[in-house]
Specification:
Residues 23-40 have a biased composition (Basic and acidic residues). Residues 1-41 are annotated as: Disordered. This protein has 146 residues and is mostly helical. It has one domain (16-143). It contains 3 helices and no strands. The protein is rod-shaped, with a radius of gyration of 54 Å.
Length: 146
C-alpha cells in the first residue's frame, strides 16, 4: 500500500523491472533481489513445465494401463470362450465316439447273429437233403448234430 504522505509509487514485482530501466541509481542489493526474483520466476516456470509434463506422462501411463487392462480382460474373455468351446467340442466328440462304438458293437453283434442264423439255415437244409436221400434220423444226427 501507499503511504499517504509519500507520492512515490511502491515497488512491486510488476514495476520492479520498470524502475531498473528508468532509475539508474539502484543499489546492488536491489539488483540482487531483482535477479533472484527473475531466477525464482524462471524456476517457477520450469517447475510448472515439469508439472505439466509429469501430468501428461501420468495421464498417458494411466491410459496405457487402462488399455492394457482392457486388452488383458478381452484376452481373458476370448480364452474363456475358447476353453468353453473346446470343452463343448470335447463333449460332442465323446458322444460321437460313444455312438460310433455302439454302432460298431451293434454291427458286430448283428453280423455274428446273422452268421449263426445262416449256419442254422444251412444245417436245416443239409438235414432236409439227407432225409430226402433216405437217411435215418439217427444217421442224420450223427452226421449233422443240432
Amino acid at each position: 500500500m501507499r503511504d499517504r504522505a509519500s507520492t512515490a509509487p511502491l515497488l512491486t514485482s510488476d514495476n520492479l523491472d520498470d524502475n531498473d530501466e528508468s532509475d539508474g541509481t539502484r543499489t546492488p542489493e536491489q539488483k540482487k533481489i531483482s535477479n533472484s526474483e527473475k531466477k525464482r520466476s524462471a524456476n517457477v516456470a520450469k517447475l510448472d513445465e515439469w508439472v505439466d509434463i509429469n501430468s501428461r506422462v501420468y495421464d498417458l501411463k494411466r491410459d496405457q494401463f487402462q488399455f492394457t487392462r482392457d486388452v488383458e480382460s478381452r484376452k481373458l474373455e476370448v480364452d474363456i470362450q475358447r476353453e468353453a468351446r473346446l470343452a463343448e467340442e470335447t463333449k460332442i466328440n465323446i458322444r460321437l465316439l460313444t455312438i460310433q462304438a455302439d454302432e460298431a458293437q451293434w454291427k458286430f453283434e448283428h453280423s455274428r447273429e446273422m452268421a449263426e442264423v445262416a449256419a442254422r439255415i444251412k444245417k436245416i437244409e443239409i438235414r432236409r437233403e439227407l432225409k430226402e436221400k433216405g437217411w435215418t434220423d439217427s444217421e442224420i444226427d450223427q452226421a449233422c448234430p443240432i
